[in-house]
Design brief:
Blueprint: E1 12-17, E2 26-32, E3 39-50, E4 56-69, E5 72-76, E6 79-80, E7 91-97, E8 100-115, E9 123-130, E10 141-143, E11 148-154, E12 163-173
Antiparallel strand pairs: 1-6, 1-12, 2-7, 2-11, 3-9, 3-10, 3-12, 4-8, 4-11, 5-7
Length: about 170
């Protein structure tokens, strides 16, 4: 009848954050699954900043999809939240030319961000989506294998005209 210590297994958690990139119309960011681990996306935050004097309404969708090809992208590096974790096995990319999607899955979230015309200070809009936590009572987005991915997709409404986008994405690899 003593105290028992319960060990909670460490979840290998990764995060990527950027300081602002110029978005494109279409799939701007993608996170593709892994050939060795199951990926569970838990949090997504994006900020859109408009520095021009144009009012914009931007439709931002998070899509679950497969079979991406083409496009022009750079691979982004995620950091492990525990320095003892290995490097991430999921692949995060930022596109300057949108990839072709041959198999669209489902829209997992959708936000409309409205940017007002403001020639002096610009305007910032923020959206945060939590997947698979006790607050939202939902499951995380799960990617199984390298053919599954999520994408952050901006509509053509105002996308890319004097705007910068910041992204924070967090996931667990099991």
């Amino acid at each position: 009848s003593g105290n028992k210590r319960v060990e909670i297994p460490d979840k290998q958690t990764y995060r990527y954050a950027n300081t602002g990139l110029t978005p494109i119309a279409g799939n701007t960011f993608t996170l593709a699954g892994s050939s060795t681990k199951t990926i569970r996306i838990t949090r997504l935050t994006y900020t859109l900043f408009s520095a021009d004097n144009t009012a914009d309404l931007i439709d931002i969708q998070t899509l679950k999809l497969s079979a991406l090809s083409g496009g022009t992208a750079s691979t982004l590096t995620a950091i492990p939240l525990d320095s003892q974790n290995n490097s991430a096995t999921a692949t995060l990319k930022f596109y300057t030319v949108a990839p072709t999607v041959t198999s669209l899955g489902a829209i997992t979230s959708r936000r409309y961000l409205s940017l007002a015309a403001n020639s002096t200070t610009g305007q910032i809009e923020l959206a945060e989506i939590n997947f698979g936590n006790s607050i939202s009572a939902t499951s995380p987005i799960v990617l199984r294998g390298t053919s599954e991915a999520i994408a952050i997709n901006l509509s053509t409404i105002g996308a890319g005209s004097g705007q910068n986008m910041s992204l924070v994405i967090e996931w667990i690899e099991e």
